[in-house]
Amino acid sequence: MNIALIIGLVAAVFAAALHVLIFWMESIAWEGPLARKTFGGTPEEARPHAFYAYNQGFYNLFLAVEALIGVALMILGSGAWRTAGTALVLYGVASMLAAALVLALKSPAHRTAALKQGAFPLIAVAALALGLLH
Q: Which of 28, 75, 103, 116 is most buried (most C-beta within 10 Å)?
């Protein structure tokens, strides 16, 4: 496995870890201190949006699981399994990157959050693409 693929897989794992944290904040600890520090507002202000945050959190979790399964298959698999892993990890991190881009384009006030959300997926997509070309 070449260095670009390794960098891409590590970045994908970091992207997945961040999305698991986002899942936790949105779906489990929405009114807690970390979520309120991250997303702003008080627990009382957050409460009416809990259902939407809960749902959005699961989107983040599913993307993370997809990327992690892809990483595992790329590392442990061969042949068709490795190919499936490549597709999963690329689709997972590319979806994370696309979501960050949508956030940045839709809300200039959230561009810093979009940058944090999209940095590891961008590195993963770029490094994986480079690594797969060699």
A: 103
